């Protein structure tokens, strides 16, 4: 699904190849009536895809400009998205059928830190925090989609398995120095 009505906003991560890869995975999985949370919504592109599919969409970002950008882009596309400021799950209440994130996944650049790109010293810190906390916000039978880079994915994948998540790769795209992929995670109901 291509959304032409997305405006770029100063100081907000714009839709890029990783955004489109995650949006494609969302398009293949999310259904009308699903409860949906995007963590780190940026411009709102992925949230808008989910809303166009008929999901009930919430979106959070630690950057207030990203929240404003998401709300503006949702309005431009004629869909409803609830969005507010939150550092990952710090201001999130409730449980969702789907929780998705395109986290910063590159090792931090000490010269010019960029919270939209830098995933901490190793590049995996934000993904690790997401995996540690996502289970508290998944509805029964809920699933998450997490975009990852081959450069920084090993540790978060190990943690997810240690926490009892079943994982499968549902989308991937190779670039010059890395492969980006989307992992779907869930726990079996025992």
Q: Characterize the overall form.
A: globular
CATH superfamily: Vaccinia Virus protein VP39
- What letter string, H or E per element, gives the SSE order? HEHEHEEHEHEE
Widest β-sheet, arrangement of strands: 3-2-1-4-5-7-6
Number of strands: 7
First CA to last CA: what distance?
A: 36 Å
Q: Number of domains in the coordinates?
A: 1
From the helix content, strand content and strand pairing, which structural class follows?
Answer: alpha/beta
Mean residue pLDDT: 90
Which parts are unreliable, with pLDDT below 50 for 5 consecutive residues or more?
Answer: none
Proportion of residues in helical segments:
25-40%
Count of runs of 4 or more consecutive helical residues: 5
Beta-strand residue percentage: 25-35%
Q: What is the C-alpha radius of gyration, as a whole number of Å?
A: 15 Å
Q: What is the correct CATH architecture?
A: 3-Layer(aba) Sandwich
Q: Can you summarize the main beta sheet?
A: 7 strands, mixed
CATH top level assignment: Alpha Beta
Predict the CATH topology. Rossmann fold
What does it look like?
The chain is α/β, with parallel strands linked by helices and 190 residues long. The protein has a single domain (17-186), classed as Rossmann fold (3-Layer(aba) Sandwich), CATH 3.40.50. 28% of the residues lie in helices and 27% in strands. It contains five helices and seven strands. The chain has helices at 17-29, 45-52, 64-76, 125-134, 154-162, and strands at 35-39, 56-61, 81-85, 96-101, 138-149, 166-174, 179-186. The chain has a seven-stranded mixed beta sheet, with helices on both faces. Helix 3 links the parallel strand 2 and strand 3 (81-85). Helix 1 packs parallel to helix 2 (45-52). The chain is globular and about 40 Å long.
């Amino acid at each position: 699904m291509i959304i032409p009505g997305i405006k770029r906003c100063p100081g907000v991560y714009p839709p890029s190849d990783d955004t489109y890869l995650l949006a494609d995975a969302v398009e293949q999985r999310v259904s009308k009536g699903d409860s949906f949370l995007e963590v780190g919504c940026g411009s709102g592109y992925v949230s808008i895809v989910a809303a166009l599919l008929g999901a009930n969409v919430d979106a959070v970002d630690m950057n207030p400009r990203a929240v404003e950008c998401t709300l503006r882009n949702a309005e431009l596309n004629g869909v409803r998205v609830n969005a507010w400021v939150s550092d990952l799950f710090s201001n999130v209440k409730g449980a969702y059928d789907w929780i998705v994130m395109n986290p910063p996944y590159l090792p931090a650049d000490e010269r010019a830190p960029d919270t939209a790109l830098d995933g901490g010293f190793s590049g995996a810190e934000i993904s690790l925090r997401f995996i540690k906390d996502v289970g508290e916000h998944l509805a029964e039978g809920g699933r998450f989609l997490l975009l990852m880079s081959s450069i920084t994915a090993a540790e978060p994948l190990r943690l997810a398995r240690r926490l009892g998540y079943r994982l499968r790769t549902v989308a991937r795209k190779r670039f010059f120095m890395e492969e980006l992929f989307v992992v779907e995670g869930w726990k079996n109901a025992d």
